[in-house]
């Protein structure tokens, strides 16, 4: 078990040999894990105080001057700088990499004010912006490192709490921005998940297997650009799809898959996500249960999807 | 390249003519804030900015960020007079596919360092440019022009606080204090009380000038160039619509174009025989 935010912090350290990599903080480096970089490279770490709007545009100015800025705060607080991201980063296509940690209801006992359930949706609407929500510490580390070479600005959500490590000992080449990863091959239903729900999707597949249902499980760590080739392939092979995300059912991974399927096929789709409501204080596992996001709920959605074939 | 005061005044006059022409042709745009800022732009580019019109993306150029991005006619006029773009380009103001987008845009227009248009963003961006220059060990500076209405945006003060904290002596602000914003006089919309005191309290070096007296403007630019112990701001007292009598101090011309009759009068007042 490990937290994806730790993968982010580790990646920044590994990127540091590139002297153009800079880190921006808004008083939450201890939480987002950029603090390791700050301690090792204070001259390349810019404290912006508790000022997210300023941070995004300082990063933009640095990107325009040849630097590769990684800015982070809580996912929820990135949202108050949304227009800065839109007008000052995405529009001029400046490769600023924004990381929102503590995303989703999984963030737990801090309660609903801290549980961003709309971040993936809003950033996905912005042209030029890559949107990611990796599932484990290892893939977060690898994908963060890949961002440094990307010409596009990005938003990446990481999670506060620990989740299973899924990619121990995999070759780094096997994890690429924009390419979903098939963790399990099946023919009856395809479960497409992101972030903390990928491990729940794997558990759901196990439950389904006990009933003789064989499920495909995809880690769709990149929500934009969506791996539509993979979606088309699994739609064809399995005949129905379930999406699963610790995010509103409006506009996130489920929304992206629905938009794509609406143009290409009539494959039944069931979306597991936060049903257009806010959260409350609770432990991570309690939140996934309350929001009906945990493995049993994903398995139920799979059964519904299969019935609709 | 150094200019006499008279040459700078003439540069500003030519720009004023182009501002009026652009807004008239487009029948839209922001003449008031363009006319209030233009003596400052002429002074800045005529005496201080280290830029290369034939190499607008020269890495070690000084950056200029027009944070009040709606006052783009002033910027475009200046860029045309300095050879970054052609006078022909000015006819594309607000026209589909044009170099001169409604608000200044770095992706469309050579010599534009920031895509503005949403108020309160330029100072933060300039701060990023200034930090990058310091990390590079470069002498380049970042100049940012703010409108006075614009400083009602809270994020301006996030940047003001952060720039002083980081002791950015290479970050220079010019505040166009024309006292009018979109809907009405600033005094009516949002009183800002003692603006110089606010910047001083945030840790900035402050100087006030008459933004239409070219001697004062040049002194102000010298102040910005010579003040390097932390960020500095030049508060320039200006008149919105300066140079065209019926636009002067008139909130109606923040964002409105002159009609045929007003256009002819404006050009006459600016010394063009029509």
Write the layout of secondary structure elements.
The complex is a heterodimer of chains A (309) and B (274).
Chain A: H1 4-15, E1 21-25, H2 29-32, H3 35-40, E2 45-47, H4 52-64, E3 68-74, H5 75-78, H6 82-90, E4 97-101, H7 119-124, E5 130-132, H8 137-147, E6 154-157, E7 181-184, E8 189-193, H9 197-210, E9 215-219, E10 222-224, H10 228-238, E11 241-248, H11 253-264, E12 269-274, H12 284-290, H13 295-307
Parallel strand pairs in A: 1-2, 1-3, 3-4, 4-6, 5-6, 8-9, 8-11, 11-12
Antiparallel strand pairs in A: 5-10, 7-9
Helix pairs in contact in A: 1-8, 4-6, 9-13
Chain B: H1 5-26, H2 31-47, E1 63-66, H3 72-81, H4 122-136, E2 142-147, H5 154-165, E3 171-177, H6 186-189, H7 195-201, E4 205-210, H8 214-226, E5 232-237, H9 260-269
Parallel strand pairs in B: 1-2, 2-3, 3-5, 4-5
Helix pairs in contact in B: 1-2, 1-3, 1-9, 2-3, 2-8, 4-5
Record keyword descriptors for this entry.
heterodimer, A: 309 residues, alpha/beta, Rossmann fold, seven-stranded mixed sheet, five-stranded mixed sheet, 13 helices, B: 274 residues, five-stranded parallel sheet, 9 helices, globular
- At the fourth CATH level, what is the homologous superfamily of the largest domain in chain A? Thiamin diphosphate (ThDP)-binding fold, Pyr/PP domains
What is the mean predicted local confidence, pLDDT of chain A?
Answer: 97
Examine the secondary-structure arrangement and name the CATH architecture of the largest domain in chain A. 3-Layer(aba) Sandwich
Q: Compute the CA-based radius of gyration of chain A.
A: 18 Å
- Note the quaternary state here: heterodimer
> What is the total domain count of chain B?
1
The number of distinct structural domains of chain A comes to 2
Proportion of helical residues of chain A: 25-40%
Q: What's the end-to-end separation of chain A, in Å? A: 36 Å
Secondary-structure element string of chain A: HEHHEHEHHEHEHEEEHEEHEHEHH
Please identify the top-level CATH class of the largest domain in chain A.
Alpha Beta
Strand content of chain B: 5-15%
Query: Which fold name fills CATH's third level, the topology of chain B?
Result: Rossmann fold
What structural class results from the helix and strand content of chain A? Answer: alpha/beta
Largest sheet of chain A: 7 strands, mixed
* SSE arrangement of chain B, N to C: HHEHHEHEHHEHEH
Shape of chain B: globular
Going by CATH, the architecture of chain B would be 3-Layer(aba) Sandwich
């Amino acid at each position: 078990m490990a937290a994806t935010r730790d993968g982010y912090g580790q990646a920044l350290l590994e990127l540091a040999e590139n002297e153009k990599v800079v880190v921006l903080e808004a008083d939450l480096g201890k939480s987002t894990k950029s603090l390791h970089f700050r301690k090792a490279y204070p001259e390349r770490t810019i404290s912006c105080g508790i000022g997210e709007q300023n941070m995004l545009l300082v990063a933009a100015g640095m990107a325009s001057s040849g630097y590769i800025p990684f800015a982070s705060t809580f996912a929820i607080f990135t949202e108050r700088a949304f227009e800065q991201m839109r007008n000052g980063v995405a529009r001029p296509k400046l490769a600023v990499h924004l990381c929102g940690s503590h995303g989703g209801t999984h963030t737990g006992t801090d309660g609903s004010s801290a549980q961003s359930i709309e971040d993936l949706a809003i950033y996905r609407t912005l042209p030029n912006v890559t949107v990611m929500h990796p599932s484990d510490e290892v893939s977060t580390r690898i994908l963060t490192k890949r961002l440094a070479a990307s010409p596009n600005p990005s938003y990446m959500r990481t999670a506060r709490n620990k989740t299973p490590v899924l990619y121990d000992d995999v070759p780094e080449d096997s994890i690429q921005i924009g390419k979903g990863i098939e963790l399990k091959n099946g023919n009856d239903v395809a479960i497409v998940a992101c972030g903390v729900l990928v491990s729940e999707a794997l558990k759901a597949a196990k439950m389904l297997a006990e009933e003789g249902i064989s499920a495909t499980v995809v880690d769709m760590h990149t929500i934009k650009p969506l791996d539509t080739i993979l979606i088309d392939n699994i739609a064809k092979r399995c005949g129905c799809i379930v999406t699963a995300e610790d995010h509103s059912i409006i506009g996130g991974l489920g929304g992206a898959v629905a938009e794509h399927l609406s143009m290409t096929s009539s494959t039944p789709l069931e979306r597991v996500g936060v049903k257009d409501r806010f959260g409350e204080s609770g432990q991570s596992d309690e939140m996934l249960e309350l929001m009906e996001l945990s493995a049993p709920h994903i398995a139920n959605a799979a059964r519904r999807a299969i019935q609709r074939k | 390249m150094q200019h006499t005061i008279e040459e700078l005044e003439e540069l500003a006059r030519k720009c004023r003519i182009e501002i009026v022409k652009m807004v008239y042709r487009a029948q839209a745009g922001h003449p008031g804030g363009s006319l209030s800022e233009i003596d400052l732009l002429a002074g800045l580019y005529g005496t201080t900015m280290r830029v290369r019109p034939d190499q607008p993306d020269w890495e070690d150029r000084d950056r200029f960020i027009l944070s009040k991005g709606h006052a783009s006619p002033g910027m475009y006029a200046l860029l045309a007079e300095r050879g970054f773009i052609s006078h022909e380009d000015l006819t594309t103001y607000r026209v589909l596919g044009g170099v001169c987008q409604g608000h200044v845009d770095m992706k469309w227009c050579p010599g534009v360092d920031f895509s503005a248009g949403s108020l309160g963003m330029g100072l933060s961006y300039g701060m990023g440019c200034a930090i990058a220059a310091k990390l590079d060990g470069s002498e380049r500076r970042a100049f940012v022009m703010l409108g006075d209405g614009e400083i009602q945006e809270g994020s301006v003060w996030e940047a003001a606080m952060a720039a002083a904290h980081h002791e950015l002596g290479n970050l220079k602000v010019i505040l166009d204090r024309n006292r009018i914003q979109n809907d009405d006089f600033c005094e009516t919309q949002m009183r800002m009380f003692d603006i110089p005191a606010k910047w001083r309290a945030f840790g900035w070096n402050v100087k006030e000038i008459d933004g239409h007296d070219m001697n004062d403007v040049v002194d102000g630019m010298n102040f910005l160039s010579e003040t390097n112990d932390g960020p500095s701001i030049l508060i320039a007292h200006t008149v919105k619509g300066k140079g065209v009598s019926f636009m002067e101090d008139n909130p109606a011309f923040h964002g409105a174009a002159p009609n045929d009759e007003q256009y002819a009068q404006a050009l006459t007042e600016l010394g063009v025989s029509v």
